Amino acid sequence: MAKVLILVDHASGKVAKTAGELATFAKRAGDCVGLILAPEGQSQALSEQLANTVIGQVIAVESNDFAKHGQACLLDAITQVVEKVKPDSILISSTSAGKEIAGRLAIRLNSGLITDAVDFAADLTATQSVFGGSFTVSSKVSAGIPVITIRPSAIEAEVGSSAPAFEKVDAVISEKAKLVSITDSKPAVKGGRPELTEAKVVISGGRGTNGDFKPVEELADLLGAAVGASRAATDAGWYPHTHQVGQTGKTVSPQLYVACGISGAIQHRAGMQTSKTIVAINKDPEAPIFDVADFGVVGDLFAVLPQVGQAISAKRA
Question: pTM of the predicted model, to two decimals?
């Protein structure tokens, strides 16, 4: 039976939901081992948050050098754990930080790398959506230990029945890895809505909003959803670039994606086409977004969204 190592993301003392998703994929191939890289004294508490996942074992490395010196120190620790565990594959969340770690790790291990996978099979084959979502391909690493990054929300996390075994190990951080020091960092300012890449529901606005995202935000708040935006909307200064969905923005794969006033250029579709259900609202019946939508509404978003909100509220009453 194969053994799959997953990197457990966490921030501010909270484990990201991607840990459960990666574990669910890993379990298809065999035993799942979670790796936690944390500041001193924090790994045990983080491991306890994995009790509801299918991770069988957790290995933790603690060091304050991770926050002080960054990625190079993380790579030293991961490499030493890989030597100890000898996994058949390594899964990492396909975030900007995750893809940087994956690229560095593949070079360090002299292994093949697959990024932005949307599926992972028992034989360690990965599925990718490529060329702006125009094609789906299956890929398999033929050299070294496969390093694969998987898009957040690509699968519903399976619930486990027992807490994983916990082991803390030491790792030697080289002096070379400490050549860069991080002198200051500021966490991203977060509101009350879910993180865009982790949300199960995303409501996005585009050029059709004319800069007024109020209807989009109201529906998002009603559904407990994240708010996204097209490149046209962010370039116009209507919404922060941190919320851009697309090839040059963030890639999302929620259970429900609602595109409001978005034409559906290939740049945008590349970032949301793997969503489980896509609903498009656009005044132009010929808009390309309807080609990928499961449900389409031809109409003005300023007329449609309030009616949707009212119907949802009435259903809940």
Answer: 0.82
